[in-house]
Write a structure and sequence with these properties.
Blueprint lengths: L16 E5 L5 E3 L12 E7 L12 E5 L1 H12 L6 H11 L2 E5 L5 E3 L2 H6 L5 E6 L3 E5 L1 H21 L3
Antiparallel strand pairs: 1-7, 2-6, 3-4, 3-5, 4-8, 7-8
């Protein structure tokens, strides 16, 4: 008799929030539940928000995309007309604000200096799961931003049928 083996979904999910120390080399450990076998080991990490007019430093954080999610962004950017000045400006802003980073052997993400600096990440980081991606925040910045985030989430909830 052959037993059926349950299917395991092979897509990456990121949930919860975690506070982790950042070492002198700007490495931050990802939670163990965010790095099981078969899940991405390299990511695209971008300063975010990139293009929001009037963005103040207090809102800057890092957006971390899986290769799968990055491919969708890349496809959108590369199908825009190269003669469209708005599309060129968007590509310029995004292209100059990200880095491809790979986890080390113990599951730490090595943040490049300019990304850590722009996001205000020094000795501690807050990692927030956003289902198919995650964010890395300076904990104090996120505490100040959290009320706005909850208000926006409440507005979005009213518009989205779950």
């Amino acid at each position: 008799m052959i037993e059926s083996v349950p299917q395991i979904d092979a897509f990456a999910e990121y949930s919860g929030n975690y506070r982790h120390k950042v070492d002198r080399s700007h490495r931050v450990a990802l939670p163990v539940c965010w790095r099981p076998d078969g899940w991405p080991q390299s990511f695209v990490v971008a300063r975010w928000p990139i293009c929001e007019e009037g963005t103040v430093a207090e809102k800057q954080h890092l957006l971390v995309l899986t290769p799968e999610r990055w491919r969708a962004v890349y496809a959108t950017l590369t199908t825009q007309s190269i003669s469209d000045p708005k599309a060129a400006a968007l590509s310029r802003e995004i292209g100059s604000a990200y880095a491809r980073l790979t986890l080390d052997k113990v599951g730490r993400l090595p943040l490049v200096d300019w990304l850590a600096r722009d996001a205000g990440i020094e000795d501690e980081a807050l990692l927030l799961g956003l289902v198919n991606r995650f964010e890395i925040w300076n904990p104090k910045r996120y505490a100040e931003f959290q009320a706005d985030s909850k208000r926006l989430a409440s507005e979005a909830y009213k518009q989205i049928a779950l």
